[in-house]
Specification:
This protein is an alpha/beta fold. Helices cover 44% and strands 12% of the residues.
């Protein structure tokens, strides 16, 4: 997706980690946290891979699409956001997409935008993100950080990558970064074994899809519509052909987000995508103090094929 495509989509709406932080059966079982319906008895050596591709493959072997859940770090507080992510993991999500609050969130709709603004107003700092990842990474699911590129650039790309790897993070989803301008990040991600997840849009031509698929690792993020994040009454008809075209272009895993908010929509996406990304629906529930674990479990069930 070109910069103009990313902007239009937004406007229209080895590892250096300490080995002691690797996930183990005991980590998974601690506190009753179970990922994707998995138990400690299901654990294998391959599950120590922090990357999201392994989680997607486990879901595929279970005959369902992976469920990836987004929440912003620091909302309504740092501790509460960590607890909320734990609730999602107890509900069975396969990966957590932890948002780094940013002052100019051009891809975010009103629900996420208000939550991010509240987190910043409450004093969120980038170091808080790494604290949250350190708390969540041992639980047993990949923690992908969703961030605009400016905070990465300001901290220093190598430093950001090293810090993320050190706390057990899986990688970055960078909605405003295109592969042609991502050389420094791609090099750092490769150096530290991190996922590098780029976005494609319904307007992306075949060459753009191929470039994005080749540059990424983990999955390719397909935006279901040309617009910002948010709850929608129906799923865009553009999602399925975009997934099909992205696979033809060479992507191993294609996950669909933007506008997926109900079990019915998750079920529809699971028919053709490798993963279902849900954000605004979780954020809205968190803001209202409603149950996250049960809703996550309901969505997990909806992803079964």
């Amino acid at each position: 997706m070109s910069q103009s495509e990313a902007a239009n989509s937004s406007r229209a709406g080895q590892s250096s980690a300490d080995p002691s932080k690797s996930r183990t059966p005991n980590d998974l079982a601690a506190g009753g946290l179970v990922a994707g319906g998995q138990t400690a008895a299901d654990w294998t050596a391959s599950d120590t891979d922090n990357g999201v591709a392994a989680a997607i493959e486990r879901a595929r072997l279970g005959e369902r699409a992976a469920l990836i859940a987004y929440l912003p770090c620091g909302f309504p507080s740092l501790a509460a956001s960590i607890d909320a992510c734990r609730a999602l993991i107890r509900g069975g999500v396969d990966a957590v997409e932890l948002g780094l609050p940013y002052s100019d969130p051009v891809m975010d709709g009103p629900v996420i935008g208000e939550a991010v603004t509240a987190a910043l107003a409450a004093g969120f700092r980038v170091d808080d993100l790494f604290e949250a990842v350190a708390e969540l990474a041992p639980v047993g699911v990949p923690i992908e950080v969703m961030t605009y590129y400016n905070p990465v650039f300001r901290r220093g790309v190598d430093r950001f990558a090293a810090d993320l790897a050190d706390v057990g993070g899986a990688g970055l989803i960078t909605p405003d970064l295109i592969p042609e301008e991502a050389g420094e990040w791609i090099a750092a991600a490769d150096r530290f074994g991190l996922d590098k997840i780029f976005l494609v849009a319904p307007s992306s031509p075949p060459a753009r899809l191929a470039l994005t698929a080749a540059a990424g690792r983990g999955f390719t993020y397909a935006t279901s519509t040309m617009g910002v994040t948010g709850l929608r009454e129906s799923l865009s008809e553009l999602a399925r052909p975009l997934v099909e075209r992205t696979r033809v272009a060479g992507a191993d895993n294609v996950c669909v987000g933007v506008g997926v908010s109900t079990p019915q929509q998750a079920s529809a996406v699971a028919e053709f995508a490798d993963g279902v990304i849900v954000g605004s629906a979780f954020v809205k529930r968190l803001a209202a103090g409603r149950d996250l674990e049960g809703f996550a479990a309901e969505l997990v069930e909806a992803t079964r094929r």
